[in-house]
Amino acid sequence: MEKLKKKPQIYLSIMTFKNLKYTSVAVFFVCLHYGGFAQDDTLQSEDIYVVKGYKPEISEAKKINEAPSAANISAKELDIEYRFLKKQIKSHFETEPIRAAKVKGEKLNRLYHSYVKLGLGSNLTTLGDLHIAETRSRKQAIGLYISHLGSPNQIKNYGPSGFSDNSAKVYGKKFLRNQVIRGSIQGEYNTLKHFGYLTETFPNVEKDSIKQNFTKIGFSVGNKSFLKDSTKFNRDINLTYYNLRDRYKSQENNFKIDADLYRNFGKEVFHVKGALDVNTFKNETNGSHTNGILSVNPYIVSKGKKWRLNAGLGIFADIDEPSKFYFKPISELKFNVVSNIIIPYVGVTGDVKRTSFDRLRQTNPFIMSDLNLINENHVLEVYGGIRGSLNSKMSFNTKYMQKKVQNMALFVVDSSFLNNTFNVVYDTVKIQEFFGELIYNDGDKMTIGAQGSYFIYDQSSQEEAWHLPNFRLSILGKYNIQDKLYFKGNITYN
Description:
Blueprint: H1 20-38, E1 114-120, E2 126-133, E3 140-151, E4 163-175, E5 179-193, E6 211-225, E7 234-246, E8 251-265, E9 268-283, E10 287-303, E11 307-319, E12 324-335, E13 342-353, H2 357-363, E14 376-389, E15 394-413, E16 422-442, E17 446-459, E18 471-481, E19 485-493
Antiparallel strand pairs: 1-2, 2-3, 3-4, 4-5, 5-6, 6-7, 7-8, 8-9, 9-10, 10-11, 11-12, 12-13, 13-14, 14-15, 15-16, 16-17, 17-18, 18-19
């Protein structure tokens, strides 16, 4: 009977080891043990059971229980003395002079001794200007200016409407080290006719009875300083006087002195402005009347990188019978949102303005001579707007303004005879203005612009704001051809 060989049977139970190294050792041991049985079949089979995995253990470390401490070591200060050898070493280096650099300055515009302007328009309108002056000088400037504008115009079905406006002025300036002295003498002679009547209704009107002329002679002197020391006050002082007469023996004498004192306080500039305006008006109906206006306006100018503030107070005295005193805020704030592209601004102001015969006749030369003059009180004016530029050549400005004016002069037709002259009535008027402006400027060559205003009036006693415009539109332009020919034009529609 053949003897059966019994192969060894291995029962291996391997636990999951955390370390792969120990698993490899266990497998190698089993394989080696199996090979040993293969050499002799007579060996007894043996069962091996692995019931748990290898458990590594770490022996305890020996710790040093001593706390570290810093040793106190003191450094000895060394007293070191330095000795210098006082010996001068001669240098044989010699400098050579350097030529001054030539800097090209900005080219100055050429000045001429004189210019003459002559013109001829519709209805035989004549124009003439003569200007004679010195060329550029560091010591003085003297000049003469003569102007004429006139026309023998005749409007159909109305009286003679010819006029002539003439003026002359001699002026001079003397430049000193830290100041300038200036003065001028001027005269005007204006003639016109009160033509505003129908020749069919009044056919026998004598021409001399509708004539009017104004003769004005005056002078002005002034002084302005330019002190570089910011701790001292600079000044700008002006004194003016004029005498005005008309054909009907009305006469006005006006004397005015105004001054501006200012100096720097750090980044701020402090101003004190003052003025005294004395006026005497005389006519055959109301006799002579003298009135004075005294004003003082202290204010400060402060500015930053993107803003500018003018803040001050106006103090006014209307010296008459009776005298009146007023205190008004005078301030303005500008803010540069985007550098010179968008600049919003807002302000508040007030004033007492002279109502003079000269001012009224320049506004309306057809006024009567026997007037009663009352000064205007601008109670309060508030405004705000935005100005800036659309590009390098085009700029704009928009503004809204609201103000209240007491004793505002309004012109009404005098219906006593020919209805060809105007009298003056006074009323309190509230005014609103919407203003817009757009200008294109191509350097010195061409400028074109347009501006318009729309007005809203609210008068207290009069039915209307007589002869005040509801809107005003102006278009202007100038063109320069190689500094030889200049074309200028201005059209205004009310």
